[in-house]
C-alpha cells in the first residue's frame, strides 16, 4: 500500500516481551478476576479446598506440640517415685526454693513413676501424619481444579482475541506495529495464563496461610505473637524498598532486551544487504554494545531483586531469636508448656515462607495485570462498522463498478480522495497508474470495503456495497497483492486456498493458465511439494505466480491485480499477461501497475495524482494528449537524457517516476514493442 505510511502508533513493542507494569492496575486486575466469573462455583470450591488445606496445615504443629508434651511428661514422670502425687512433687520443689522448676512442672501433665505413654504419643503422631496427608490431597485438588479453570478462561480469552482480530478494521493494523499486535495475542496472553496459574494460586494460599498462622499464634501465646508480628512491617518495608528499585532495573532490562531483539531481527532480515555493503563489523559492534547494556541491566536487576529474600530472612532470624528467648523464659516460668513453645517456634519459621511467596509473586502478578491491560486494550478497540446487509449479489455478477462522488481519507486532517467518480464497465480492464501516494491501492481497497467511505457511494451491479455483507462482496472478488503470501503447506493447497471446493483438475488448469505448472512439474514432489512458512524453497517470481493461480481458481467476477507482476522476470511477465488477457475477457479487472508496459492493452487507464483522476483514456489516447500519463511513460521509456531535457514538459518527470528498479528490465522490451 504505497499511499499510506504506517506509523508505529502510540504503542511500543519491546521485542515481544510482555508488559512489566500496568498503568491502571486495580481496574485491570478487577477485570482480569472478572474473567473467572462464569466459573464462580468452581472458584468457590477452590477456595474451600485451600481453606481446608490451610486449616489442617496450621493446626498440625499444635497437635505435634501436644506430642512433644507427652514425651516431656514421660521423661519427667519416669524419674519421680511412683505413687507420689504430682501436686506434692511441685509443692516440695517450691518448699526447697526451686520455684522455677516447680512452675515449669505445673504445666506438665506427668504421672510419677510412669514413662512415655507411647499409645498416646502414637495417636498424636498418627493424627499429625493424617492431617498433613489430607492437607496435601486438598492442596493438589485445589491446584488441579484451579489449573482447569484457568486454562478454560485463557481458552475463552484466546477465542475472544481471535474473534476480535477478525472484526477490527484494517486501519487498526495500519497504525500499529505488527510485532506489538503479535505480542498482545501471544506473549501477553501467555503471561496472563502464568499469572493466573501461579500468582493467583500462591497468593490466595499464602495470604490464607498467614492469616491462619497469626490466629494460631494468638491462640498459643498472644505475647509472643506480638513479637513475631514485629517482623511483618520490617519485612514489608524491606521488600517494598528493594522491590521498587528492582522494578526500575527490570524495566531497563526489558527495554534493553527489546533493543537487542530488534538488533538481532534486523541483522537476520537484512543479512544480504549487510553483506553487500560490508557492514558485518558495524553490526557486531552494535550488537556487542547493546548486549553489554543488557548484561549490566540484567545483572543489576537480578542482584537487587535477589536481596529481597536474604533481607527478609535476616529479619525473620531476628524475630526467631526473640521468640526463642522469650519462649524459653515462659516455659521456665510455667507460663506455657514446652509443646506450645515448640509449636510456636515452628509457626514463626513457617510465618516467613508465605510472606516470601507473596513478595515473590507480586512482580509476576503485576506483570500479568499489565499484560491483561494490553489485551483488554485490544479487545476494547473500535471495531469496523457493523454490517447492514439488505441485498445479495447473484452467483455470477456482471462486474459493473461505479464510483459516485467518493471521498475518503485515512486521517481527518489529511484528505486523500475527494469527490471521485468513474465507471468500470463489465468485462473491461481498468488500469490505475500514478506516482507513489496518489491513492491507487486505496481505490481498490475501497471496493473491497477494507475501509469505509467518508462520503459518496460505490456501486457493484447497481448495489451499494454498504448494503452487502463483506463476505458476499469479497467472495466475488479475486485479489493478487504485490507482496506474495504463501502459508505452510503444499503447492496444491496454496492454490486451492482461492476456492476450497476446487477439484485437483481445476487447480491444475489454473496452474497451467498462469504457467505455474511449468516449474511445478520439474519439482520432485510436483504439486505435493511442501512450501515452508517463509516460502524459501521457491523463487519470488514463482511465489507470485502461485498467488495469481490462487486468484484464478477462485473464478471471481471482479479481479484486482495490485502490481501482481512485479516479482516475475520479463519473459515470464509476457506469458502471464497473455494468460491474464484471456481471463479478463469475461470479468471486470482493476490493474495497479508501475510498469506501464503491462497495461498498454487496458480498456481504460486512470491516471491519479493526489487522490484525483487527472486523466482517463486508453494508452494511445493518453499518449497523444502529452499530459500526466505521457510524462510517466517518458520517464520510464525515454531515450537519452538530453532528449528528455529538450522538452520542458518532461524535464520535471523524474520526481514522479514509479519503480525505478524495474526500469532496467522493462524498458528494453517496451522499446521493441514501440518499434
Task: Describe, in plain words, how this protein is organized in 3D.
The chain is elongated. It is built from 24 helices and 12 strands. The strands form 3 sheets. It has a 6-stranded mixed sheet, sandwiched between helices. A 4-stranded antiparallel sheet has the order 2-1-4-5, with no helix packed on it. The chain is an alpha/beta fold. Strand 11 (604-609) and strand 12 (612-617) form a beta hairpin. It has helices spanning 25-34, 40-78, 86-95, 99-105, 118-167, 170-174, 178-185, 187-220, 222-269, 271-276, 280-305, 308-332, 338-379, 440-447, 470-474, 491-496, 504-513, 516-520, 540-553, 570-583, 619-625, 628-637, 641-646, 663-674; strands at 401-408, 417-424, 429-433, 455-460, 463-464, 477-480, 489-490, 530-531, 558-562, 588-592, 604-609, 612-617.
Produce a short descriptive summary.
This protein has 675 residues and is of the alpha/beta class. The protein is 60% helix and 9% strand.
Topology:
Blueprint: H1 25-34, H2 40-78, H3 86-95, H4 99-105, H5 118-167, H6 170-174, H7 178-185, H8 187-220, H9 222-269, H10 271-276, H11 280-305, H12 308-332, H13 338-379, E1 401-408, E2 417-424, E3 429-433, H14 440-447, E4 455-460, E5 463-464, H15 470-474, E6 477-480, E7 489-490, H16 491-496, H17 504-513, H18 516-520, E8 530-531, H19 540-553, E9 558-562, H20 570-583, E10 588-592, E11 604-609, E12 612-617, H21 619-625, H22 628-637, H23 641-646, H24 663-674
Parallel strand pairs: 3-10, 3-11, 6-9, 9-10
Antiparallel strand pairs: 1-2, 1-4, 4-5, 7-8, 11-12
Helix pairs in contact: 1-13, 2-5, 2-8, 2-13, 3-4, 5-8, 8-9, 8-13, 9-11, 9-12, 9-13, 12-13, 17-19, 21-22
Membrane topology: Multi-pass membrane protein
Family: Belongs to the ABC transporter superfamily. Lipid exporter (TC 3.A.1.106) family.
GO molecular function: ABC-type oligopeptide transporter activity; ATP binding; ATP hydrolysis activity
Amino acid at each position: 500500500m504505497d499511499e499510506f505510511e504506517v506509523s508505529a502508533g502510540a504503542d511500543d513493542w519491546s521485542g515481544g516481551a510482555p508488559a512489566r507494569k500496568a498503568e491502571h492496575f486495580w481496574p485491570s486486575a478487577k477485570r482480569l478476576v472478572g474473567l473467572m466469573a462464569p466459573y464462580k462455583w468452581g472458584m468457590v470450591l477452590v477456595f474451600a479446598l485451600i481453606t481446608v488445606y490451610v486449616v489442617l496445615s496450621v493446626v498440625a504443629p499444635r497437635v505435634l506440640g501436644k506430642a512433644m508434651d507427652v514425651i516431656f511428661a514421660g521423661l519427667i514422670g519416669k524419674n519421680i517415685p511412683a505413687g507420689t502425687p504430682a501436686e506434692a512433687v511441685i509443692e516440695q520443689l517450691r518448699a526447697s526454693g526451686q520455684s522455677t522448676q516447680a512452675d515449669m512442672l505445673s504445666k506438665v501433665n506427668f504421672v510419677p513413676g510412669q514413662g512415655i505413654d507411647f499409645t498416646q504419643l502414637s495417636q498424636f503422631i498418627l493424627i499429625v501424619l493424617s492431617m498433613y496427608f489430607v492437607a496435601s490431597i486438598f492442596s493438589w485438588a485445589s491446584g488441579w481444579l484451579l489449573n482447569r479453570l484457568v486454562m478454560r478462561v485463557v481458552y475463552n480469552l484466546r477465542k475472544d482475541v481471535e474473534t476480535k482480530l477478525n472484526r477490527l478494521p484494517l486501519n487498526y493494523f495500519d497504525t500499529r506495529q505488527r510485532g506489538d499486535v503479535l505480542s498482545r495475542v501471544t506473549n501477553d496472553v501467555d503471561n496472563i495464563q502464568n499469572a493466573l496459574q501461579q500468582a493467583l494460586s500462591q497468593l490466595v494460599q499464602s495470604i490464607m496461610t498467614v492469616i491462619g498462622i497469626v490466629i494460631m499464634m494468638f491462640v498459643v501465646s498472644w505475647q509472643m505473637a506480638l513479637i513475631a508480628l514485629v517482623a511483618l512491617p520490617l519485612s514489608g518495608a524491606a521488600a517494598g524498598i528493594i522491590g521498587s528499585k528492582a522494578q526500575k532495573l527490570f524495566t531497563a532490562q526489558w527495554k534493553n532486551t527489546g533493543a537487542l531483539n530488534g538488533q538481532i531481527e534486523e541483522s537476520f532480515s537484512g543479512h544480504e544487504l549487510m553483506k553487500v555493503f560490508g557492514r558485518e563489523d558495524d553490526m557486531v559492534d552494535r550488537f556487542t554494545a547493546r548486549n553489554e547494556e543488557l548484561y549490566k541491566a540484567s545483572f543489576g536487576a537480578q542482584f537487587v531483586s535477589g536481596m529481597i529474600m536474604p533481607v527478609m530472612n535476616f529479619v525473620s532470624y531476628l524475630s526467631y531469636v526473640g521468640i526463642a528467648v522469650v519462649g524459653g523464659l515462659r516455659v521456665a516460668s510455667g507460663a506455657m508448656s514446652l509443646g506450645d513453645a515448640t509449636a510456636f517456634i515452628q509457626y514463626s519459621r513457617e510465618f516467613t515462607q508465605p510472606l516470601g511467596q507473596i513478595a515473590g509473586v507480586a512482580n509476576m502478578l503485576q506483570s500479568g495485570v499489565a499484560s491483561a491491560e494490553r489485551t483488554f486494550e485490544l479487545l476494547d478497540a473500535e471495531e469496523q462498522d457493523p454490517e447492514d446487509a439488505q441485498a445479495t449479489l447473484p452467483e455470477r455478477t456482471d462486474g459493473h463498478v461505479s464510483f459516485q462522488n467518493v471521498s475518503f481519507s485515512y486521517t481527518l486532517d489529511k484528505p486523500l480522495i475527494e469527490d471521485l467518480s468513474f465507471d468500470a464497465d463489465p468485462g473491461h480492464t481498468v488500469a490505475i497508474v500514478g506516482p507513489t501516494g496518489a491513492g491507487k491501492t486505496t481505490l481498490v481497497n475501497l471496493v473491497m470495503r477494507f475501509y469505509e467511505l467518508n462520503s459518496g457511494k460505490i456501486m457493484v451491479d447497481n448495489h451499494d456495497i454498504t448494503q452487502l455483507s463483506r463476505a458476499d462482496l469479497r467472495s466475488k472478488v479475486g485479489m493478487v497483492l504485490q507482496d506474495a503470501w504463501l502459508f505452510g503447506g503444499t503447492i496444491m493447497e496454496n492454490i486451492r486456498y482461492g476456492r476450497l471446493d476446487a477439484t485437483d483438475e481445476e487447480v491444475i488448469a489454473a496452474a497451467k493458465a498462469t504457467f505455474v505448472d511449468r516449474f511445478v512439474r520439474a519439482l520432485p514432489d510436483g504439486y505435493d511439494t511442501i512450501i515452508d512458512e517463509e516460502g524459501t524453497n521457491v523463487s519470488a517470481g514463482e511465489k507470485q505466480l502461485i498467488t495469481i493461480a490462487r486468484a484464478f481458481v477462485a473464478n471471481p467476477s471482479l479481479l484486482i491485480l495490485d502490481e501482481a507482476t512485479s516479482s516475475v522476470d520479463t519473459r515470464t511477465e509476457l506469458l502471464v499477461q497473455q494468460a491474464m488477457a484471456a481471463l479478463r475477457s469475461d470479468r471486470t479487472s482493476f490493474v495497479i501497475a508501475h510498469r506501464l508496459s503491462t497495461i498498454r492493452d487496458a480498456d481504460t487507464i486512470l491516471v491519479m495524482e493526489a487522490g484525483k483522476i487527472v486523466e482517463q483514456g486508453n494508452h494511445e489516447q493518453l499518449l497523444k494528449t502529452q499530459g500526466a500519463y505521457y510524462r510517466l511513460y517518458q520517464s520510464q521509456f525515454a531515450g537519452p537524457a538530453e532528449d528528455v531535457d529538450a522538452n520542458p514538459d518532461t524535464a520535471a518527470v523524474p520526481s514522479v517516476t514509479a519503480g525505478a528498479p524495474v526500469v532496467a528490465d522493462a524498458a528494453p522490451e517496451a522499446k521493441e514493442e514501440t518499434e
